[in-house]
């Protein structure tokens, strides 16, 4: 247990804040030493989906539960069980080395395996829920070990029960994934096809992963260089009726149908259209190439980033009547 620890290096926004207490746990048993947890308490994985707006006046527990094991397999499928403290991208690379397909499109997403189900991480046409089998968690009040199957997690777009009713109530200690030995390639995003064609590589889970890594490196700021948490806002999903009205006023607005009654809008387009891209005040800004990514150029305070986020939300609501929800957990 360490006291008064800087969290700057423990999260990707790189904001200068302190935690009153900080502890690393490497096993389920270690974690149980703090259960029932005293408030305030927070779990931290890679810190790639949090914005701290103030010092944390309690205990931050950093998950380092490791281990990847094959639980069972047949000729076509394999079930693996992974420690929540494993780094997500390292797991993707491990699967590619073993020829286990299913998460190659999720290459280079920062963060830990334990946090991946919380917002049902997704990229390039694939979401965690597509390969999710079950997870093991510890109740932070009682210390009970609970298993959650697919249905229990109530996955949605960047969403799960752990972001809603069960927020802050469980520590996800292990995640089980069902992967394919016979790959089904998802190249539904045109840019992936373009990169594969350009590279002249035959399609494989490795070449697909390489293409995704290349695109992400070109598109997204590296947190090691500029503090950020990836997409700050979720793409808003609105009713078909609201969309039909908007489309008359803004015919260029991109959209993606969701079922028969809803439409997903591109939050980045809305923010860009309002002229926010490249905006900077002090060290808080909107990335020059990615309107959806808020950045810390060095010494921004969490409150400055948060005030900028709120100003963007207000301007999007005023112009389009659309409420932008944050994807990042603001503390
Ligand atoms: C450059 C960049 C690109 C990104 N791209 C994507 C993308 O393409 N798709 C995408 O979906 N996300 C993306 N993200 C967001 C982020 O990578 C994911 O949300 C990731 O799953 C967060 O993992 P983490 O370990 O860093 O979580 P943290 O930031 O450490 O924690 C996030 C939340 O989960 C809680 N938590 C953490 N671990 C546990 C646990 N074991 N049990 C219970 N609660 C826990 C924390 O208390 C916090 O509330 C990106 C982020 C960055 C910086």
Task: Explain how this protein is built.
- The protein is of the alpha+beta class and 331 residues long.
- It has a 5-stranded antiparallel beta sheet.
- It folds into 3 domains: 62 residues, Uridine Diphospho-n-acetylenolpyruvylglucosamine Reductase, domain 2; 113 residues, 2-Layer Sandwich (Uridine Diphospho-n-acetylenolpyruvylglucosamine Reductase, domain 3), CATH 3.30.465; 104 residues, UDP-N-acetylenolpyruvoylglucosamine reductase, C-terminal domain (Uridine Diphospho-n-acetylenolpyruvylglucosamine Reductase, domain 1, Alpha-Beta Complex), CATH 3.90.78.
- The protein has 8 helices and 20 strands.
- A hairpin with a 2-residue loop joins strand 17 and strand 18.
- It is globular and about 55 Å long.
- Bound molecules: flavin-adenine dinucleotide.
- The site of flavin-adenine dinucleotide has 33 residues, from strand 3, strand 8, strand 12 and strand 13.
- Flavin-adenine dinucleotide binds next to strand 3, strand 8, strand 12 and strand 13.
């Amino acid at each position: 247990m360490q006291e008064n620890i800087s969290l700057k290096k423990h999260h990707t926004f790189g904001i200068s804040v302190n935690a009153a207490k900080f502890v690393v746990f490497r096993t389920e048993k270690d974690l149980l030493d703090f259960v029932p947890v005293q408030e305030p308490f927070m779990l931290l994985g890679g810190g790639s989906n949090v914005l701290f707006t103030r010092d944390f006046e309690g205990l931050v527990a950093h998950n380092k539960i490791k281990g990847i094991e094959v639980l069972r397999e047949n000729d076509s499928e394999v079930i693996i069980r992974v420690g929540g403290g494993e780094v997500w991208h390292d797991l993707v690379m491990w699967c590619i080395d073993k020829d286990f397909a299913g998460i190659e499109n999720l290459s280079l997403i920062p963060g830990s395996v334990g946090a991946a189900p919380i917002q049902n991480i997704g990229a390039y046409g694939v979401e965690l829920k597509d390969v999710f089998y079950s997870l093991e968690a510890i109740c932070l009040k009682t210390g009970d070990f609970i298993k959650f199957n697919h249905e229990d997690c109530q996955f949605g777009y960047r969403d799960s029960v752990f972001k809603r009713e069960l927020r802050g109530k469980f520590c996800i200690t292990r995640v089980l994934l069902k992967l394919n030995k016979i790959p089904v390639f998802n190249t539904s995003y045109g840019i992936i096809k373009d990169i594969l064609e350009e590279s002249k590589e035959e399609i494989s889970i490795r070449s697909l992963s390489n293409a995704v890594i290349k695109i992400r490196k070109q598109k997204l700021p590296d947190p090691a260089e500029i503090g950020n948490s990836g997409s700050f806002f979720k793409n808003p999903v609105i009713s078909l009726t609201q969309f039909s009205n908007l489309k008359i006023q803004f015919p260029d607005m991109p959209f993606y149908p969701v079922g028969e009654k809803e439409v997903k809008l591109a939050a980045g387009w809305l923010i860009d259209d309002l002229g926010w891209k490249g905006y900077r005040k002090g060290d808080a800004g909107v990335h020059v190439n990615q309107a959806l990514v808020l950045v810390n150029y060095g010494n921004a305070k969490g409150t400055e980033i948060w005030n900028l986020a709120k100003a963007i939300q207000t301007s999007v609501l005023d112009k389009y009547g659309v409420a932008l929800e944050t994807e990042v957990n603001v503390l």
